[in-house]
Amino acid sequence: MSLVADPVRVASGPRRRHRRGGRVLGWAVLLVAALYFLVPVAASVEFSLRGKGDTHDLSTWSALFEQPGFAENMPTSLELAVGTVLITLLLMVPTTAWVHLRLPRLRRLVESICVLPLVIPAVVLANGVLVAFKGFPNWITGTPVILALEYVVLALPFTFRTLDSGLAAIPLTTLVEAARNLGASWPHVLLRVVVPNLRTAILNAAILSAAMVLGEFTIANLLLLNTLPVWTVQAGQQDAQVATAASMLILLVSWALLMLMSVFGQRGARRTRRSR
Amino acid sequence: MRRRLDLLGLLPFLAYVLVFLGVPAVAVAVGAFQTDTGNWTLANLTAAVGDPYLNAFVVSIETSALTAVIGAVVGLAIAFAVSASPAGGVLRQVVSTASGVLAYFAGVPLAFAFIATVGSQGIVTKWLVSLGVDMSGFSLFGFLGITLVYVYFQVPLMVLVIFPALEGLRPQWQEAAANLGATRWQYWRTVGGPLLLPPFLGALMLLFANAFAAYATAAALTNGVIPLVPIQIASLMSGNVAVGQENLGNALGLGMILIVGLALAGYALMQRRTARWLR
């Protein structure tokens, strides 16, 4: 009976009410989600600002910068980020460009190799490093050098994807052939033709790797190497407030980097649009 | 000939991945089948699926499955709510940026954020206690606490993964269904639902793998109290080993690789199905 009811009524009456109900439900979901995601951030800020009694001040933050562990490990983590980014770019920019240029049929294979690190949990990778490189010289396995080398591997899934989509967006073959016809050598082509055209993708890959390195705890902790996150957890066993302040700092730096990425991304997009 | 020379260009990359990923992975896999004197054995694997390590696998799988389901359902609801808003609107921009940024909010900072929120001195705990709620039954360091914290990084990942599929459902399909007399419910039951099912299941498996492999958050939060597999491996690595069990960590690691590998293979399979209709 209701199946043959007036189509106008069916289309406008109950359904519109249903939609409005859906929208209210939608906003309710978003509101609860926003609370769940914002409260811990706000709570961290509040917690790191707590002073004696019921006051709030900057004492935890000034104490943080005076901690000897902080002063030692902050530079280590920054150096690790820089080292990882450099190795990543040196390895992956030529490789992805070469694959696009000369081995397009192997793109799928290289892509699958690059997502392999996702299959091997960081704990297992750390265990493997410990087992496999037992006899290696101490300057590799006993220092953050091994961390930078392994972080490059951990970053592969997103460095490949970022550089790959950057390369797909430019007429690489035409550019490289033009440069080669004009007598440019391969290193020259790479540095003066490929890299400038790929700068947004390179910047994104660098930022994503750096943000990952700054927060990485698992491998560093299990290889008994000190970095900022490792120190933060150790400090947290004595003073949760200092540790919370340190984590906020790690978080703020990575978020600032990611924001930088989206700003540069938008500016790049605007430039492309204008030049078209 | 030239093709063969071209392949040489891949050599540095392949060598790097082989040394820094392949060799450690193989070392784990081989070590799982060896005694500490290098003889072949199945004892490590038997120990890994026996007491108490079997329980670690059970707890890990339970935690990962529960947080994957919660994360997937909540993430889908958020994605739905956002996809109902106008294209190019502020809400979309905010949610997509927030998801991208919050997906990075995991590990050590996340653990301390929750300690500051619902830890014993946390602001929410203090507030609830002042309202007269009894918080003594709740521990951030137990199963419930871990679930609460893991959901925090599962939801943004779900939004990032499922949103393209939701956006890919063309309004024309719904209009076509409506023109043929389908109700909204019928559309979702016979068109939208079946289309979204593969990406949803795929995302569910990705989230499962994500939680199963996670170590930093649990380690920073619980100091190794909760018996998850990664925590067990870490404690075996740091020397809490009985004699003759040096390779037990490798056996547990092999188990993790298998489970994560299976889940991610399922994710890849479902993604391929989705790619058929998603541009």
Automatic annotation (TrEMBL), chain A:
Its main location: membrane. The lineage of its organism: Bacteria, Bacillati, Actinomycetota, Actinomycetes, Pseudonocardiales. It is found in: Cell inner membrane; Cell membrane. Residues 74-261 form the ABC transmembrane type-1 domain. It comes from Kutzneria viridogrisea. Belongs to the binding-protein-dependent transport system permease family. The keyword Cell membrane applies. The chain crosses the membrane at residues 24-43, 80-101, 113-133, 139-160, 201-225, 245-264. PROSITE patterns: ABC_TM1. InterPro entries: MetI-like (IPR000515), MetI-like_sf (IPR035906). This is Spermidine/putrescine transport system permease protein. Gene3D superfamilies: MetI-like. Keywords: Cell inner membrane, Cell membrane, Membrane, Transmembrane, Transmembrane helix, Transport. Pfam families: BPD_transp_1 (PF00528). It comes from the Bacteria. It is a multi-pass membrane protein.
